[in-house]
Write a structure and sequence with these properties.
By secondary structure, this protein is α/β, with parallel strands linked by helices. The protein has helices at about 10-20, 45-55, 60-90, 105-120, 135-155, 165-175, 175-185, 195-200, 205-230, 240-245, 250-280, 305-320, 325-355, 360-380, 390-415, 420-430, 455-460, 520-535, 555-560, 585-600, 620-635, 655-670, 675, and strands at about 290-295, 300-305, 435-445, 465-475, 490-495, 500-510, 550-555, 565-570, 605-610, 635-645, 685-690. About 55% of the residues lie in helices and about 10% in strands. The strands form three sheets. The protein has a seven-stranded mixed sheet, sandwiched between helices. Helix 3 (about 60-90) packs antiparallel against helix 11 (about 250-280) and helix 3 crosses helix 12 (about 305-320). The protein is elongated, with a radius of gyration of 29 Å. The two termini are about 40 Å apart.
């Protein structure tokens, strides 16, 4: 089950939405449940199922759940800012205890230089330096274990008694309220685990358990015991207890490895931030951003330029603004414990609705939630001392997410309630009342069923239309990955003479949509395979009175390659420009090489389709396949609606503020849908339409 929990709060939310109708965006299909990664189990009649039905009926509760998830995801983004700031600043703070002490301003300047370098190198990806991460972390853990053991033996061996629960009881008895408030600082010793959960998909659950139980936990406990032993004899060293406790001969090696470990830890959290924003976008909760796949060999290594620079600016602002690891630590601790608190709550829902265990077991699991709540209450006391930072950042990011999701949902519902009547379309006849010209028209829509309202604009505004029409819907499903064999869902709209089809392209929330140049060819092959399948299987050959929209079939790319209905011949591409490669200028060659490394050219295959000479194919099927091939030879056009979303005049002030200002601003400043879908600009046709929601 752990492979489905990769990604933190949003992965848990998508898992819950897979087994309960909690999603506010109504684009789910029964065919999605047949995906191999879906693993849906029908619920049995239990207390948990009745609770699920109660939540499904109340939209307000589902909206509240979405707010909780968005707040948790926003805290992870804030965690990505604070972790880099506190890790780098605390690692270089060791220079304050050297003989040539740096001033506080020089220390902050050095931390800022490291932060700029860290974020500037993100676009290269981590795969080129990832081989150094494991040795750095192992050396760091061995170093802190050795230093802790040395301090225990030298300063106070009796400190090992601290493992007894008696002393924590005695501590709270004697300190009272101050002891409870100190929990806000104690939780910093376990920070980082929330980022590991967000990166869970990169490791197995067993490897994480073994690493935490037998390596990380013993090293941390021994190190903190060593610091306590050192402070029991050196109370004046409290501000810089770690670096003061390091023996002189090994100070500089430990300082270097501490700085490297801080960079590695920051890198992990930055990667987790990219991952969760990618998932938010896939599930309709974040504006369209550029996602770069940085490694050809390691799946999941991504880079988001806009988010990277926003994180850098925020990290620099916090470092320069606070210049104090204590204040940043208060903010960092609140962000981490909030993420843990929300994650534990969502896990209780997973236990009830997904694993279908008893509500009592989920209540027992919520004991951890209560413990985390105690830590959270202590961390909230630090809000005036820096703890307000993650709250402000989370509110800003949550507003962006919810406004985008709200506008997307309203636009989708408008399309859903204003679909073109199939009866009206059938009344137009196969010609649709206009001239049908050779070619394939790919009409992009967010609707997975029915014909979008914008199609009537196409018919009334364009004097001619393509002979073959395909309604394409690119949708994300609540699973991490969709295998290529299950990606295409093909169906027919209207009777056969209309030559109108539907194609649903499905991606998981961790899938990367790449422009490999083969989409048009795969689409034509998939439609041809569907035509053959429809003719050969009785369930697709229903009566003429049956619905012509909704009959879909999964077309596997493997079956296409093994038994294609069409003969495919590849045409040599002579359009490649080799002038730069043949140039004698070393400068031009080096510039071209650097550009190709950062922007690998898309190699578009040029193929020609032919029908086999076999007489087995039915005459009507052969005629339809010939029309498809001729349309492909004539060219493919991508048709999209250039939509403007506005609130109705009768809408409330709040709705007008969200739609007309917030959502409109986000749409204007994010990537366009054509760019996000890798649609060739030269083949794009856009028709404007205003959505009054």
């Amino acid at each position: 089950m752990y492979e489905f929990l990769s990604g933190g709060t949003f992965a848990l939310y998508s898992l819950i939405c897979r087994h309960a109708k909690f999603s506010l965006l109504p684009n789910q299909q029964a065919a999605d449940e047949e995906l191999s990664a879906y693993k849906y189990r029908p619920s049995t009649e239990t207390v948990g199922s009745r609770l699920k039905q109660f939540l499904e009926k109340h939209k307000g509760l589902r909206t509240a759940l979405l707010f909780v998830v968005l707040f948790g995801a926003s805290m992870v983004i804030g965690d990505g800012v604070l972790t880099t700031a506190i890790s780098v600043l605390s690692s270089v703070s060791g220079l304050l205890v050297t003989e040539k002490k740096l001033t506080n301003g020089e220390l902050v300047l050095l931390a800022c230089v490291i932060l700029v370098g860290l974020f500037a190198l993100q676009h290269f990806g981590t795969h080129r330096v990832a081989f150094m991460f494991a040795p750095v972390v192992i050396i760091w853990l061995v170093s802190i274990f050795s230093i802790g053991l040395y301090n225990i033996i030298r300063w106070n061996p009796k400190i090992v008694r601290a493992v007894s629960p008696y002393y924590i009881i005695k501590f709270f008895r004697e300190t009272g309220k101050n002891g409870w408030i100190s929990l806000g600082g104690i939780l910093l010793s376990i920070t980082g685990t929330e980022a590991m959960f967000a990166d869970l998909g990169h490791f197995t659950a067993l490897s994480i358990r073994l690493a935490f139980a037998f390596v990380i936990y013993p090293c941390l406990v021994v190190q903190y015991m060593g610091q306590a032993a050192f402070l029991s004899r050196n109370l004046q060293s409290i501000p810089n207890s770690f670096y003061d406790s390091i023996p002189g001969p090994v100070f500089w090696p430990v300082f270097v490895i501490a700085t490297l470990a801080a960079i590695v830890g920051s890198q992990a959290v930055i990667t987790a931030t990219f991952s969760i924003i990618k998932q938010c976008h896939a599930l309709g909760c974040f504006p369209r951003v550029k996602v770069v796949h940085t490694s050809k060999h390691i799946y999941g290594q991504i880079y988001i330029p806009e988010i990277n620079w926003i994180l850098m600016i925020l990290a620099l602002a916090i470092t320069i603004g606070f210049q104090d690891t204590t204040l940043i630590g208060n903010a960092y601790g609140l962000a981490c414990i909030t993420v843990m608190f929300i994650t534990t709550f969502l896990m209780a829902l997973v236990i009830t609705f997904v694993w279908q265990k008893s509500v009592l077991l989920a209540a027992v699991f919520l004991l951890f939630w209560f413990i985390e709540g105690v830590y959270l209450s202590a961390a909230l006391m630090k809000v005036p001392q820096g703890g307000w930072v993650p709250l402000v950042l989370s509110v800003i990011f949550m507003m962006v997410m919810y406004i985008w999701h709200y506008g997307t949902r309203k636009k989708y519902n408008f399309d859903l309630h204003n679909k073109v009547s199939l009866k009206w379309l059938l009344g137009l006849g196969p010609s649709l009342g206009i001239v049908r010209v050779p070619g394939i028209g790919l009409i992009y829509s967010e609707l997975a069923t029915g014909i979008p309202a914008i199609f009537s604009h196409f018919v009334t505004n364009l004097p001619a239309f393509h002979n073959v029409l395909v309604f394409v819907c690119v949708k994300s499903v609540p699973v991490p990955y969709v295998s290529p064999e299950e990606r295409f869902l093909i169906g027919r709209i209207c009777p056969r003479p209309y030559r109108m089809y539907r194609c649903i392209v499905r991606y998981g929330y961790k899938d990367i949509q790449r422009d490999d140049g083969d989409f048009e060819d795969q689409l034509v092959q998939s439609i041809a395979e569907f035509i053959q399948m429809e003719a050969g299987e009785p369930q697709f050959c229903g009566s003429e009175s049956s619905s012509y929209d909704g009959r879909m079939a999964v077309i596997s790319t493997k079956s296409i390659q093994s038994s294609s209905s069409l003969i495919i011949t590849e045409i040599a591409d002579c359009s490649a420009n080799n002038s730069i490669q043949s140039s004698k200028s070393l400068t031009l060659q080096s510039l071209r090489s650097a550009y190709d490394d950062e922007n690998p050219p898309v190699r578009r295959r040029h193929v020609r389709f032919q029908l086999p000479t076999s007489p087995v194919i039915d005459i009507s099927v052969r005629e339809e396949l010939m029309d498809l091939i001729q349309a492909k030879e004539a060219g493919v056009a991508y048709i999209m609606g250039h939509s403007y979303v506005k609130a109705r005049r009768t809408s409330s002030f709040f709705k007008k503020l969200v739609i007309d200002i917030g959502y409109s601003f986000l749409r204007k400043n994010c990537r366009g849908p054509a760019v996000a879908l890798n649609i060739p600009h030269s083949n794009l046709i856009e028709v404007g339409m205003i959505y009054y929601v």
